[in-house]
Specification:
257 residues; three-stranded mixed β-sheet
């Protein structure tokens, strides 16, 4: 059976690809599990400094597969679907590397929530974006009313989730929902060129800046504070002195450097 989500690298660029083109890369539980695994691979890939998220075939991501969740009980829908989806999308949002969503196809519902979990979005001119969930009697469940509000503004999300507006890429650019436009068939090239520019910047500074912006935005919190502080401490002579003394069963001689 072919992999549902793959991770590969091109020098300093990681590429995560959703591979369910026959369903326009709609997400079900196996897809979410495979995405989580691919994100773990990206996180651990030494030397990868930016990550692209893209869809195979004509679509980016058609959102949650209605056939996958439509028959679930209320309890399973809450825990297996909504909460697990949140966990995977949070994993993407908190990836250490900057991320770019490559929107070569429509990003609707869960697909737009997936794109919103990335740091940046590059969309081709023909792409449509929106939150159509209320048209079938459900609400955005993977942070479309939370993270998307923080990143795109409450009013824009109201217009999509309540007003039913679907934005073309050019309108989405004007409203800050996407960051760059590309001609049809060129989103990957545009996103990769941007990722290569990001990869040229100081990797530790870039990761720290992403964490700090996440704290200000409300995406990150206590864990980010401890990560930044621990990263600083790990570079000091005091840590080496303390660990060395522990191993030698001696009293450490700290220097505050």
């Amino acid at each position: 059976m072919a992999e549902l989500v793959t991770f590969e690298r091109d020098d300093a660029i990681g590429i995560v690809t959703l591979r369910r083109p026959e369903k326009f890369n709609a997400l079900d539980i196996p897809m979410l599990r495979a995405l989580e695994t691919a994100l773990d691979e990206a996180e651990l890939a030494e030397g990868v400094r930016a990550v692209l998220i893209r869809g195979d075939g004509k679509g980016f991501c058609a959102g949650g597969d209605v056939e996958a969740w439509g028959a679930m009980s209320a309890a399973d829908f809450q825990v297996q679907w909504v909460r697990y989806g949140h966990r995977v999308f949070d994993r993407l949002a908190r990836l250490r590397q900057p991320t770019i969503a490559v929107l070569s196809g429509h990003a609707l519902g869960g697909g737009l929530e997936l794109a919103a979990a990335c740091d940046f979005r590059v969309a081709e001119m023909q792409v449509k974006l929106g939150f159509p969930e209320t048209s079938i009697g459900v609400v955005p469940g993977w942070s479309g009313t939370q993270r998307a509000v923080r990143r795109f503004s409450a009013q824009i999300v109201r217009r999509m989730a309540i007003g039913g507006e679907i934005f073309l890429a050019s309108d989405a650019l004007a409203h800050g929902v996407v960051d760059r436009l590309a001609e049809t068939g060129k989103a990957f090239d545009e996103a990769k060129a941007w990722a290569e520019k990001i990869a040229e910047r100081g990797p530790l500074a870039t990761e720290a800046a992403k964490l700090m912006i996440g704290v200000a935005e409300g995406e990150e919190g206590a864990a980010a504070t401890e990560a930044l502080a621990s990263g600083f401490i790990a570079l000091t002579a005091d840590l080496k002195a303390g660990v060395g003394a522990f191993k030698a069963k001696q009293k450490p001689a700290f220097s505050r450097f």
